[in-house]
Amino acid sequence: MSREAILAYAKKKYDTDPDYPWGKLSDYAVLRHKKNNKWYGLLMNVDRNKLSIEGEGETSILNIKCDPELASILRKENAILPAYHMNKEHWISIVLDGSVSNEEIFHLLDLSYDLTQ
């Protein structure tokens, strides 16, 4: 799934425009609630070796909040990892390499939105 598809989904469903709080890291996009500014998603490009996954260079990931019990089940999938740079009990990172279906990503993003209201 592309970053653009995730941003388009967030805009259409939640009227969320991405926030880019780190000027020099323009590929780090935060998805926030309009009312309380809480994050429900974070799109990043991260070096694969920092995620302990095979390959060279960077990969796109989406960090989302997740119920801890569900997170422990999801982490058994190859493309769902303990969250990069977030609380690993409550957040997961989804590698955006096509391994996780668009439907599942959108469903998990919806859950994250609900958990962070």
Would you kindly provide a brief summary of this structure?
This protein has a single domain (3-115), classed as Aspartate Aminotransferase, domain 1 (Alpha-Beta Complex), CATH 3.90.1150.
Task: Compute the number of structural domains.
Answer: 1
Query: Helicity range of the residues?
Result: 25-40%
Distance between the termini: 25 Å
Tally of extended strands? 5
Poorly predicted residue ranges:
none
Alpha-carbon Rg, integer: 13 Å
Strand order of the largest sheet: 1-2-3-5-4
Query: Structural class from helices and strands?
Result: alpha+beta
Describe this structure in words.
This protein is an alpha+beta fold. It has a single domain, classed as Alpha-Beta Complex (Aspartate Aminotransferase, domain 1). It is built from three helices and five strands. It has a five-stranded antiparallel beta sheet with strand order 1-2-3-5-4. The longest helix is centred in the last third of the chain and has 14 residues, at about 100-115. The model has no long low-confidence stretch (mean pLDDT about 95).
